[in-house]
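Q: Please design a sequence for this.
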């Protein structure tokens, strides 16, 4: 088992209807230090806009893991969100915060010690709750536009190599399938909805947040973002096939 310190936040309640967690959500703290984030979770500091917040876990840059809320409880980390037909994402998920200043304060890559700790922790969580790979998500996936974390510098491909989450590797069949999604009106939107994204969002917003998770290479060329290109469609096709083939 991973080693962790435990600080119990008062910012939690029961999961609605007693549901079990079926989603794992990764965040960044948006703080300059672990202590700053901890102060928010322990109500020493307060977010004027968001009110009390809490994750289940926080991972510092050196790999130190702190637990703030027990996994059977509903932490307050996702806010107004949606995934795969559900809108009370806090009840359905476990949230992990990674200490990182975020896009507004000097966003940078996640150190390897932090990633190694994340891999160890998430393996235990996904095994314990039988969370499928396609439901290991970023905050941006469940709250497009509103939240950008953990952002395009999260190494989702490396995590997938550790057996956590999915990283698309499209073959010709996926490019052919992606071409069909691009060719038919509303087919691409329906495919994003089938994967889990909020159907109420503008297509360009869904495309960009999908790219922030599953096509991060595009962030080297910002002008190409939010455009449903062939590679994006092929990766979506691959992900849908793997989601549909998963057996709990």
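A: Design:
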């Amino acid at each position: 088992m991973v080693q962790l310190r435990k600080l119990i936040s008062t910012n939690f309640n029961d999961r609605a209807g007693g549901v079990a967690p079926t989603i794992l959500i990764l965040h960044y703290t948006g703080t300059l230090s672990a202590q700053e984030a901890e102060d928010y979770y322990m109500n020493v500091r307060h977010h004027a806009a968001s009110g009390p917040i809490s994750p289940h876990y926080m991972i510092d840059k050196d790999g130190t893991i702190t637990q703030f809320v027990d996994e059977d409880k509903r932490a307050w980390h996702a806010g107004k969100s949606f995934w795969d037909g559900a809108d009370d994402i806090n009840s359905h998920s476990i949230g992990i915060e990674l200490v990182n200043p975020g896009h507004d304060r000097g966003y940078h890559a996640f150190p390897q010690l932090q990633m190694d700790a994340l891999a160890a922790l998430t393996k235990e969580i996904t095994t314990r709750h039988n969370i499928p790979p396609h439901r290991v998500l970023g905050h941006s996936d469940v709250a497009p536009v509103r939240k950008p974390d953990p952002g395009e510098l999260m190494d989702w491909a490396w995590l997938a190599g550790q057996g956590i989450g999915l990283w698309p590797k499209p073959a010709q069949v996926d490019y052919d399938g992606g071409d069909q999604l691009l060719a038919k009106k509303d087919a691409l939107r329906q495919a994003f909805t089938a994967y889990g994204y909020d159907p109420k969002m503008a297509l360009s917003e869904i495309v960009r947040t999908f790219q922030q998770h599953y096509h991060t290479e595009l962030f080297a060329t910002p002008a190409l973002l939010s455009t449903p290109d062939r590679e994006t469609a092929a990766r979506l096709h691959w992900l849908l096939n793997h989601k549909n083939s998963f057996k709990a």
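Q: Thanks. Anything notable?
A: The first strand starts at residue 5 and ends at 6. The chain has a mean pLDDT of 96.
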